[in-house]
Amino acid sequence: LAKTTQPISMDSYEGQEVNITCSHNNIATNDYITWYQQFPSQGPRFIIQGYKTKVTNEVASLFIPADRKSSTLSLPRVSLSDTAVYYCLVGDDLQGSGNTPLVFGKGTRLSVIA
Amino acid sequence: GAVVSQHPSWVICKSGTSVKIECRSLDFQATTMFWYRQFPKQSLMLMATSNEGSKATYEQGVEKDKFLINHASLTLSTLTVTSAHPEDSSFYICSAPPPTSVNEQYFGPGTRLTVT
Predict the structure, then answer these.
(1) Contact between A49 and B112 using a beta-carbon 8 Å cutoff
(2) Cα dist. A59→A33, A67, A75 in Å?
(3) For a FRET experiment, which of A28, A47, B94, B107 has its CA 20 to 30 Å from that of B75?
């Protein structure tokens, strides 16, 4: 699995847009990019996944440049409840269909301030 | 959506005793489940892969005789921490890939183990 690099932590005020960038210089052709969110004392939760360009769902947007060596998770108008750790994962079997475990990096600890 | 449950959500035990943690897929079958461990302020670390009908596969450095895994059915995997020590205190999380081609794995809510 491609190694990922994220900022250790970020702070934001409520109502702001938060962008968390993940570097994955060694991403392979078949790799997808997936982001998970983890609240304290809970299991991770899937947020969004993409392969290229832009993906948007009701929770977030994922921007992936043409070279795919990085990706940016965008959280619009964050609230206090968005305080969590966000993990960027890169791999070719993140769907789990091949029964491959997920490998988590250190993640980014987002703190939203009132 | 698919749900994975864990029981208990938290447990306190004395050193030297054994503790069993259950992981269940509530509305889907999982031939494979994964067990992770997470220490405070750290990321999830994969411990082992639980396979229904066969032996579990352990990651390097994880003692298979200490962390017994049994995939009893297509909806249940158990992790037993044997002869627990205070350093085994951690947050244990299981996950299971859904059978359909969705873009995620489902994680349980985790079990907080404290060994006194």
Answers:
(1) no
(2) 16, 25, 7
(3) A47
As a whole number, mean pLDDT of residues A49-67 equals 95
* Chain-chain contact of A102 with B112 (C-beta, under 8 angstroms): no
**pLDDT 10s digits, B19-75:** 999 999 998 898 899 999 999 999 999 999 999 988 999 999 999 999 999 998 999
Residues 6+ apart with CB under 8 A from B69: B35, B48, B50, B56, B77, B78, B79, B80
Cβ-nearest to A43 among B45, B101, B108: B108
B53: alpha, beta or left, given left = phi > 0 and alpha = psi -120 to 50? Answer: left
Strand-pair category, B4-7 with B19-25: antiparallel
- Give all strands (DSSP E) within B14-89, no chain letters: 19-25, 32-38, 45-51, 57-58, 67-73, 76-81
Tokens representing A56? 């948007």
SS3 state at B88: helix
